[in-house]
Amino acid sequence: PPQVAAAEAGVAEGGRVVAAIPTASGKTFIAELAMLTADGPALYIVPLRALAREKYETFDQLPGVSVGISTGDFDAAEEELGDHDIVVATSEKVDSAIRNGAPWVERLACVVVDEVHLLGAPGRGPTLEVTLSTLQRRVPDLQLVALSATVDNPEAIADWLDAALVESTWRPVSLRTGVYADETVAFDDGTDLDVAVPPTGPNDDEATEATVALVEDAVETGGQCLAFVRSRREAEALADRLADEDLSPAPALGDELDELGGTATGRQLSECARTGVGFHHAGLRSAHRVAVENAFRDRRLAVICATPTLAAGVNVPARRVVIRDQKRYTGDAMEWIPVLDVHQMCGRAGRPHLDPFGEAVLVGDADTKTELFDRYVTADAEAVDSQFADPEALRTHVLSVVASGFADSLDGVADVFSATYYAHQNPSVDLAELVADVVSDLEAMELLDVTKGTLSATTLGAQTSRQYISPTTGARIVSGIRTIEEMADEHVTARTVLEVVCDTPDMHDTYLGNRERALMYQYARSHAAEFTTAMHDADPFEEWLTAVKTARILHEWTEGSDIEELVERYRIGPGDVESRVERAEWLLGAADALCTALDADVPEFREVRALLSP
């Protein structure tokens, strides 16, 4: 039915459509209808690399269709992408292609945006928002198709995009959602499910044992199960607990996972997999994550214990979804998970062509049962609100607009931003005034020049935008380069340039535990002469010390330490090492480009980058 509604709304005739429909309700086919009938190339925008790969493989199966994928270097225009019928890319990559003047962008006839509700996500949302605004300006007759989970205000997104709204609650497999308490699940359709939970001992966690019982019940009747918990450690611990039950023996799968490379985490995963249980989180190496996803889709794994990020990523449907934890630690306190995130998890329940129904169960107790029902089961997901006014996002996109030649004045930048979702939601806001403070920041960072009301990117600003780093990162790297030029040659080492790029907002944070703080402090003191920031000037000190830890890990990687050694030594996941290495390569390359803009020569940026991926 949602596909019929999309067709009637003109999706196969060049019409703009926003489809706000549940998971597994046919969004991909709606996208294909648009892309295959468009009068020219199509672009499919996704939020995550893993999802890009999955969609690329899906579209590549279409007969007679040439498909390209772009998720790599941010400083490349990748002109060959224009030769394909369909290009799959992340929103960041599309934004970067626009900044770098990729000619294929202006030849697009159709753009499909998957997970468009992520407009409301800090960081990623503003990039998607500006990308869509810019694409509409560059290609006035562009067909836009936006796909979303059900949210509270899809009509606002449709109105912004001048699109027809297709809104539906239809699913190919019916879903009932409920709350567990006292050995009974009360579902929203009025039915109950009795669950036998063995008596718990003094050291047992009641919520965990209830989760185990709910998983066992699903697997014993031929279903698969996703169990969501709040953290990586909890995902691994729950998988270990479920492995004790030997739910669905799969010794061959364990052997296959062993062949992907050994770390303690990888070995733990392979041992769990031998019993039909896997776990999935960002700390796993990418090869292990893909293997878990594929094994689950192939029904070789009965259970995945995961953090909530799995729900927003690749397609892994299950008969039953169990959400053990409804709160997570945000850095300051334990907070309720957003309703939309919980609905995304629940939406994974029900395998088309395999299950007569899907079930989603939130684990509670007698005290929380009613609250969980009201908060998540019967509640609508949150509205999608723009995050564009965040100062860091504004700095990034003001610089991009000026550096790309789209505007050269406050009013011109405001005019570009008038097409954003933020402007649509806040029509009374003076955009020129909003931009003025940001322009002052960028001028102070030496990234913009303001002369008699005319804005232009400096050489540093143009290079910062081209390298797709944030203005704050660009300013920090420039400061580091200038400090390096004043340092004695013998003090400039691999540690020096790694400290510069790790002490930027574009480098992922690395957890700094209480037990290692003193050791990292001593390391910083012993190498103080090699760092561009003096310890007494570091502000905030804790963030700088965390950057030093990341730099130390990367330095040891360049000197031959393998992932297993680093994971054991620094309490970091193997996937974290992979992501830090990838980020460092990008940032070191950007730093080398900024050296050229400064007419400075710091060969260590190039040398260390080469060592990261020999």
How do the helices and strands line up, and which of them pair or pack?
Layout (H helix, E strand, L loop, with lengths): L1 H7 L8 E4 L6 H11 L4 E5 L2 H12 L6 E4 L15 E5 H9 L10 E4 L10 H15 L4 E6 L5 H8 L2 E4 L6 E8 L2 E4 L4 E3 L11 H15 L4 E4 L3 H12 L7 H8 L5 H10 L3 E4 L5 H12 L5 E4 L13 E4 L3 E3 L4 E3 L2 H8 L10 E7 L5 H9 L13 H13 L6 H8 L3 H5 L5 H14 L3 E4 L2 E4 L1 H8 L4 H16 L7 H9 L11 H13 L14 H18 L4 H8 L3 H25 L4 H10 L2
Parallel strand pairs: 1-6, 1-7, 2-4, 2-5, 3-4, 5-6, 8-17, 11-13, 11-14, 12-13, 14-17
Antiparallel strand pairs: 8-9, 9-10, 15-16, 18-19
Taken as a percent bin, the fraction of beta residues is: 5-15%
Spatial extent as radius of gyration = 25 Å
Task: Tally the helices.
Answer: 25
Structural class: alpha/beta
Please tell me the overall pLDDT. 93
> Percentage of helical residues?
40-55%
The top-level CATH class of the largest domain is Alpha Beta
CATH structural fold name of the largest domain:
Rossmann fold
How many structural domains does the protein architecture include?
4
Q: How many β strands by DSSP?
A: 19
Q: Describe the largest sheet.
A: 8 strands, mixed
The largest beta-sheet arranges its strands as: 10-9-8-17-14-11-13-12
> What shape does the CA trace take?
globular
CATH superfamily caption of the largest domain = P-loop containing nucleotide triphosphate hydrolases
**Poorly predicted parts:** none
Please report the distance between the alpha carbons of the first and last residues: 52 Å
